[in-house]
Design goal:
The protein is of the alpha/beta class. It contains 17 helices and 14 strands. It folds into three domains: about 260 residues, Rossmann fold (3-Layer(aba) Sandwich); about 100 residues, Four Helix Bundle (Hemerythrin (Met), subunit A), CATH 1.20.120; about 50 residues, no CATH class. Helix 2 crosses helix 3. The longest helix is centred in the N-terminal third of the chain and has 22 residues. Bound molecules: adenosine monophosphate and zinc ion.
Length: about 450
C-alpha cells in the first residue's frame, strides 16, 4: 500500500510523492514559548510525531528531515517577561522566559514519546533570512515600507498572477470578500485593509534588530515571516509537507504561502498542507476563563505520557477530539494490558493491519483497533507495531513500578500480605485468604491467581 495524505489546499487525499525520496522534508509550526503548553498544543506534537515515525519507517531514518520551530519573539513573551521579572532589563527577562518555557516544553513532549525533530530553529536566530525575504518582496512589488513598518499586499500578489498561487486559495477564501469584510479601523500606514505586517518597529527596551527596506529605526519581525524564513533556511524554497493546527490555516499559513511563493516566484511552498483538528475538554472549548485549561505538565503528574499519547491517537487527527477523564481511564487500562503482555517480548515487524491504516492518511483509530486484534493473535507483531507508534518505551516492571509509586502502594507490604494469603490458602483458611484479598483491594491492588502462582497490579 502507498502512503496517502489529505491536503488542505486541494481538499483531497492524494498519494504522497516526495520531491526527493532521499530527503523527505516536513515543517510543523511549533510553540510560542511564554507559558506551559496545554493539552491542545500536544495534539500537533503527537500527530506529526506519528507521521515523522511513519515516514522514517518508509524512507529510512536518514532520509527524513523534520523541522519544528520555536517562536521566541512575540508580544506575549514580552508581557510575561515584564510581569515575571520586573527587576531585570527586558531583554534579560525575555531570555529567562524563553529558556525556561523551552525547557518545560521539551520535558513535556519527551514524556509524550515524541521524537525530537531533526532541527528546532529559533526565530531570533533567523532574522537575517527574514530580512532577505522581506527585501525580495519589496523588490518584487509585493511589499512596501510605511511608517517604519513593512507590509505585504495580498492585492498586489493576486494582481501579479504570474505563476503564483492565488491569495486565499489555501484557506478557501476570496480576497474580494476579505476586502469587503475587513475592519474599518485599520492602521493608518496600511494602503489596503487586507495588508499584513512583515516587520514592525520595536517599543523602547524590546528586542530589536536592524530593519530591512531602508527603514532607519530598528524593529522586529511579524509572526508569519518567521516560519517562511525558518522553513526556507532548513528545507528550501519548496518542500513536501507543512503542518499545524487547523486554527493556523488562516491567516498564518495563508500568509506563509504568500510570502514564500512571492519571494521565490514559486507556485507552491509545500506539496501537502496538513492540519489537525481542535481539542476540547469534556465537551467544552478549553479556555482560561472556563477554568478547564489543562497543561501537559499537570496531566503528566497524574498519567504516564504514553497514556496521553494513546488517548490522543484514538481520534483521527482531522476530527475534533473531546478530551475526557473517562477516555483517559480507558486508555490507561489498555496500556496497562499491553505493557503486561508485550513490553518484554522481542518485537516483531509492525503488522500490515496496523501500518495500512496509518498509510491511509494516518488513520490511527483503525490502527489501534488492529492492535487490539493482535493482542490475541500475534504478540511479537503487537510489540513491534506499538513501538512504531511510539509506545513501550519502558519495561513492564518499570511501568508497573511507576504506577505503584504514583498510587503510593508499598510493594513490600503487598508481597508480605500475599505470602500470608498463600499460607492461609495452603492451610485452607479461606476466610483469612478472602480477608487479605479484600484488604489488598481496599489498597487498590488487584490480584490474579493462576497455576504459576499469584500476580498483582495496582488498579488505577
Ligand atoms: P500556539 O502556541 O497557540 O501557536 O499553538 C501551537 C500549536 O498548537 C499550533 O499548531 C496550534 O494550531 C495548536 N493548537 C493550539 N490549541 C489547540 C487545540 N485546542 N487543539 C488542537 N491544536 C491546538
Ligand atoms: Zn508557523
Amino acid at each position: 500500500m502507498e502512503l496517502r495524505l489529505y491536503d488542505t489546499l486541494t481538499k483531497e487525499k492524494r498519494p504522497f510523492v516526495p520531491l526527493n525520496a532521499n530527503d523527505v522534508r516536513m515543517y510543523v509550526c511549533g510553540p510560542t514559548v511564554y507559558d506551559f503548553a496545554h493539552i491542545g498544543n500536544a495534539r500537533p506534537v503527537i500527530v506529526f510525531d506519528v507521521l515523522f515515525r511513519l515516514l522514517r519507517h518508509l524512507y529510512g531514518e536518514a532520509h527524513v528531515k523534520y523541522v519544528r520551530n520555536i517562536t521566541d519573539v512575540d508580544d506575549k513573551i514580552n508581557d510575561r517577561a515584564a510581569r515575571d521579572f520586573p527587576g531585570l532589563p527586558l531583554n534579560e527577562a525575555i531570555r529567562k522566559v524563553t529558556e525556561q518555557t523551552g525547557q518545560q516544553f521539551h520535558a513535556d513532549v519527551d514524556a509524550l514519546g515524541a521524537l525530537r525533530p531533526s532541527v528546532e530553529p529559533r526565530a531570533t536566530e533567523h532574522i537575517g533570512e527574514m530580512r532577505e525575504i522581506i527585501e525580495r518582496l519589496v523588490k518584487g512589488g509585493f511589499a512596501y515600507a510605511a511608517e517604519d513598518h513593512v507590509l505585504f499586499s495580498p492585492q498586489a500578489m493576486n494582481a501579479a498572477n504570474a505563476g503564483l498561487p492565488r491569495y486565499g486559495a489555501l484557506s478557501n477564501r476570496s480576497l474580494d470578500e476579505m476586502i469587503a469584510g475587513a475592519r474599518v479601523d485599520v492602521a493608518p500606514y496600511k494602503k489596503d485593509n487586507t495588508d499584513f505586517v512583515l516587520w514592525k518597529p520595536s517599543k523602547p527596551g524590546e528586542p530589536s534588530w536592524p530593519s530591512p527596506a531602508g527603514i532607519k529605526a530598528e524593529g522586529r519581525p511579524g509572526w508569519h515571516i518567521e516560519c517562511s524564513a525558518m522553513a526556507w533556511k532548513h528545507l528550501g524554497e519548496h518542500f513536501d509537507i507543512h503542518g499545524g493546527g487547523i486554527d493556523l490555516v488562516f491567516p498564518h499559513h495563508e500568509n506563509e504561502v504568500a510570502q514564500t511563493c512571492c519571494a521565490f516566484h514559486r507556485e507552491r511552498m509545500a506539496n501537502y498542507w496538513m492540519h489537525n483538528g481542535f481539542l476540547q475538554v469534556e465537551s467544552e472549548k478549553m479556555s482560561k476563563s472556563l477554568g478547564n485549561f489543562i497543561t501537559i505538565h499537570e496531566l503528566l503528574a497524574d498519567w504516564p505520557g504514553e497514556v496521553l499519547r494513546l488517548n490522543m491517537l484514538k481520534t483521527h487527527y482531522r476530527s475534533p477530539i473531546d478530551w475526557t477523564m473517562k477516555s483517559l481511564e480507558e486508555s490507561a487500562k489498555t496500556l496497562d494490558d499491553w505493557y503486561r503482555v508485550a513490553a518484554d517480548v522481542a518485537p516483531g515487524k509492525p503488522a500490515a493491519s496496523v501500518v495500512d491504516p496509518l498509510l491511509d492518511d494516518l488513520n490511527t483509530p483503525l490502527a489501534i483497533a488492529a492492535l487490539h486484534g493482535l493482542r490475541s493473535s500475534d504478540v511479537p507483531a503487537l510489540a513491534g507495531s506499538l513501538r512504531l507508534l511510539g509506545f513501550l518505551s519502558e519495561s513492564a516492571a518499570q511501568w508497573e513500578g511507576r504506577k505503584q509509586q504514583a498510587s503510593g502502594v508499598d510493594a513490600k507490604e503487598v508481597e508480605r500480605l500475599l505470602s500470608e494469603r498463600t499460607a492461609a490458602r495452603s492451610r485452607k483458611d479461606f476466610r483469612e485468604s478472602d480477608r487479605i484479598r479484600d484488604l489488598l483491594a481496599a489498597m487498590g491492588v488487584a490480584i490474579k491467581d493462576s497455576k504459576d502462582g499469584t500476580t498483582w497490579e495496582v488498579m488505577r
